[in-house]
């Protein structure tokens, strides 16, 4: 039901707020998609080769009708809203250790 979905999303948001973005992004699959296409493809193949569970998880994402991305973004105009819809956010930030990390998403894989 709509209420169930709402409760699940609220729980996801509450859980996500327990960890700083620069920490959670270190293990994020989205980090790999910022690589050049050939490097990302090689990294993906390696991830799949580690286990059948990895292959299954990526197949589920690839076959999904949609992917729900929960970015903390408030577009300032229709152009920013369209850009966010098409490819998510793509800001690079530096953490305490001065290593850049992707904040947000890059969800358009076509």
Structure description:
The protein has 110 residues and is mostly helical. 50% of the residues lie in helices and 7% in strands. It contains five helices and two strands. The chain has helices at 2-16, 21-24, 37-50, 52-63, 78-87, and strands at 91-94, 100-103. A two-stranded antiparallel ribbon has the order 1-2. A hairpin with a 5-residue loop joins β1 and β2. α3 crosses α4. The longest helix is centred in the N-terminal third of the chain and has 15 residues, at 2-16. 3% of the residues are buried. The mean pLDDT is 76.
Total number of helices: 5
Taking all residues together, what is the mean pLDDT? 76
- Biggest β-sheet, characterized? 2 strands, antiparallel
Structural class: mainly alpha
> Termini, distance in Å?
31 Å
